[in-house]
Amino acid sequence: MIAAYKTRKQVLNTYAIILVIATVGFVVRTAKFDQFTFAFHIASFGVSIVMITTMWEALRYINRRLDHSFPFEKSISGRITLQLLLGAVLAIFVRFLIYLFGEPYLPFKLDELFLAATWVMYIIVTVGVNLGFFTDYFIRRWKDSLVLAERLEKEKAQVQFDNLKNQLNPHFLFNALTSLNGLIFESQDLASQFLQHLSKVYRYVLQNKDKNFVPLQTELDFIRNYVFLLCTRFEKALVIKFDISETAIERAIVPVTLQILIENALKHNVADEQRPLIIEIITIGDYLVVSNNLQLRAKVGSSNKQGLENLSSLYRFLIERPVIIDQTDSRFAVKIPLL
Q1: Half-sphere exposure of residue 255: CA atoms within 13 angstroms, side-chain side
Q2: Residue 29 class from Cβ within 10 Å (0-12 exposed, 13-18 middle, 19+ buried)?
Q3: Is the pTM of this model over 0.70?
Q4: What whole-number percentage of the chain has pLDDT above 90?
Q5: Domains in the chain, CATH or no CATH each
Q6: Are residues 294 and 332 in contact, defined by beta-carbon separation less than 8 angstroms?
Q7: CA 260 to CA 168: how far, in whole Å?
Q8: Collapsing DSSP states into helix, strand and coil, what is residue 180?
Q9: pLDDT in tens, 205-236
């Protein structure tokens, strides 16, 4: 029967509990009946282990059957009451069998007060075992609720981030097509290059939109195409610098992270030829750092301030190290942990 337990740890825990209960009985008997031989006490100890194991398995069977026929979800108080009553009935039944077929054949007469106490003790033991089953159930349900809450929170963060990535389609496409329209009349060669980089940007988004992470090198290849489009549009008003270490290239990053951070910098800061916005993308240790000089706009349109928060939430589920946001009077920086 014990082999039906799911894990080796459960089997060991079961043996330990049975051994403890049998040992307590052994100590009580040796103290109460010191006139009997050690062999008698050892034999009683063996019989106790068999009886306790049988009762344990019977109680565990009742617990499993009630899990299917009368689960806690149906009525917690009703389930607990019924299981305790069934355990008490089992204890009384076993004690009655001992009273009929065991006590009359003992070579000595037991004290009546001690015998009365054993009836109560049998019930107390079954109550203790059932309380253990109840505790195990509620602990497992508590752990499951924590796992579920974390999974739902992660799914929420993923949905919010997916929505954030999807903003690239309408908003960025409108600006890109507007720029492309102007380039067609100014320089067909530049317009052709612009269109090629634009197609690579959207190919990357389509290929990686469902992935949790991509190699940093892949993200950098994408962002250089994206930067070409931005620099064509903003010209000298925007400067983007890269300083990526060789050791960081093979690390991973959530797709379109860099695009979101660059877009965030452009949305909140002034960028013109007199005051160019300078964005630096560098690696420092285990972090990718995206920073820019701070020259905030007086008013930012269509900003719900959720972009960085959603990005941080997603990274929190992917890696223990957090996204770090640093801001001084002259500079704003976001440190992304490399995966």
Answers
A1: 21
A2: middle
A3: no
A4: 12
A5: 2-159 (no CATH), 167-337 (3.30.565)
A6: yes
A7: 9
A8: helix
A9: 777 767 778 889 989 988 998 888 888 888 88
